[in-house]
Design goal:
alpha/beta, disordered N terminus, elongated, 8 helices, single chain, 12 strands
């Protein structure tokens, strides 16, 4: 395993928690409020005590045994589950230069804020991470331990990455893993095949927010003359005239067309599509997502 950079999300967790506070309340609003339900009568487990919880719900036996406070959880409290589908494929690591983070780093910061806001709401959170294969997945669970596990996996990736992208398989896997309606965040550049049908099927039983991560190369290529390009996932090589104005326009139009078609597919099937550039502030973007849902 290797760190994606020296700025660890685990090390930044305290700072990110402060940022995530405003997002936690936003998760309870608008279209997503229907996923919350009040406390029921069926006991289903315990979770870490969160400031503001009713002290009458503290499970004193577990608290005494574990040495820190736990509260009883009832089935209807667990209705809002959060799940993150995170793309770690090679195209997410294309470097546009020192001015911009790679797509993965931008997406990882967004995923970290979602996980932390979920913890603050007492929501179980799970995830699946993929490149050319599924290399990590976990069912939704409560607590700080689960959050830190996800941050650790966001920081560290397999040293031997597999070419390609199995986004479709990751979506199918999420559908099989989740037993109740969930709020799902799909974070990817969507440079993959065979994702449409699994995404649509996932949205039929869940609320899905899709973030398409883009960078400067998706809009404009630097004028470098005739250059041989290699697809970092398929190793396909093409010679492209980057200084040609006509080619640059076609490149831009092609990428804009892909984004437009992606947005159309999402909107037609009740999926909330958001385009996130690597230079965007993930906190501001997530804030606008939940504000729009009110």
């Amino acid at each position: 395993m290797g760190y994606i950079d020296s700025e660890s999300l685990v090390q930044k967790a305290s700072y990110l928690r402060i940022q995530a506070r405003s997002l936690a309340e936003g998760m309870k609003t608008g279209n997503f409020r229907s996923l919350y339900r009040g406390q029921g009568i069926e006991f289903s487990g315990v979770r870490d005590y969160i400031r503001g919880d009713d002290i009458r719900s503290i499970d004193w036996n577990v608290t005494a045994r574990m040495g820190r406070p736990y509260v009883k959880v009832f089935e209807e409290e667990r209705e809002l589950q959060i799940f993150i589908v995170m793309d770690t494929s090679a195209s997410m690591f294309l470097d546009c230069g020192s001015r911009y983070p790679v797509k993965y780093k931008a997406g990882a910061n967004l995923a970290a804020l979602v996980a932390l806001a979920s913890e603050m709401n007492g929501c179980p959170v799970g995830a699946v991470f993929f490149d050319g294969r599924i290399h990590f997945s976990c069912k939704p669970a409560f607590g700080k331990e689960r959050t830190m596990l996800l941050l650790t996996h966001l920081d560290k990736l397999p040293e031997q990455k597999t070419n390609g992208s199995v986004l479709g398989n990751a979506l199918i896997g999420a559908d099989k893993l989740l037993r109740k309606r969930s709020l799902i965040f799909v974070i990817s550049d969507f440079r993959s095949a065979d994702w449409q049908t699994p995404l649509i099927q996932l949205a039929q039983k869940n609320d899905v927010i899709a973030f398409r991560i883009t960078d400067e190369f998706d809009r404009d290529l630097p004028p470098l003359g005739t250059v041989t390009f290699s697809d970092i996932e398929s190793n396909l090589k093409l010679v492209l005239p980057t200084s040609s104005q006509k080619f640059k326009e076609e490149w831009k139009n092609h990428n804009e067309g892909m984004i437009w078609r992606w947005q159309e597919v999402c909107s037609r099937h009740g999926i909330h599509p958001y385009v996130m550039n690597v230079s965007d502030d993930p906190l501001e973007l997530l804030g606008s997502v939940f504000e729009a849902a009110r």
